[in-house]
């Protein structure tokens, strides 16, 4: 078997291998955590930019409101392209760092445009709530004895169901009044927050590792782990930001 074939086989299974060495696991956790924090730092900086530069916020508001939907659609497409077509690139250093940095910039720009339609207080509240949810999830993932990594099929079914419900909500939005649409979005955001916390718990358990975990990220998969965790945090923030409308 050629060296390239051996590397290909290693990449294809490296997200399900168990990290036995304590040093390997510690190094992997540090790499993953550091990468996620840098990505989140870039995102937060871009989110706050229009609030620090009022003229930028005014310029964004002069553009058609459909810009938000276009950006979210583009972000959705890019996320799926990375997940399906560029998956192997997340294992290749330094290519994975460039890819993750670019994705963080794109996500930050999407959220920057979205957040300009909210007050700074709503944005800070959503950020605080996101931090609390993530910390609570980390603690729960660490102390939970049950192997949640074995529930990926359940997570996929729930995710598919929520996607279908969201598509249905978009169709219904053309036929209901604004009040009904408001409460539909609130209820949907609430369940999406629970879903992202559920999947984030599974991913954190996969990062932490352990002999009782069915799926554990290998030490070479820190790019995959960081991308996956960042997606959940992104989803958490967007839906918590929507839920801040309840505080108005």
UniProtKB/TrEMBL annotation:
Coiled coil, from the record: none
Location of this chain's protein in the cell: Membrane
Membrane-spanning ranges: 28-49, 69-90, 97-114, 120-144, 151-175, 181-200, 221-241
GO cellular component annotations of the record: endoplasmic reticulum; Golgi apparatus; membrane
Domain of life, source organism: Eukaryota
InterPro entries according to UniProt: Bax_inhibitor_1-related (IPR006214)
Lipid bilayer topology: Multi-pass membrane protein
Keywords: Membrane, Transmembrane, Transmembrane helix
Example GO biological process: negative regulation of apoptotic signaling pathway
PANTHER family the UniProt entry points to: BAX INHIBITOR-RELATED (PTHR23291), PROTEIN LIFEGUARD 1-LIKE (PTHR23291:SF127)
Family according to the record: Belongs to the BI1 family.
Name of the protein this chain belongs to: (pine wood nematode) hypothetical protein
The organism of origin for this protein: Bursaphelenchus xylophilus (Pinewood nematode worm)
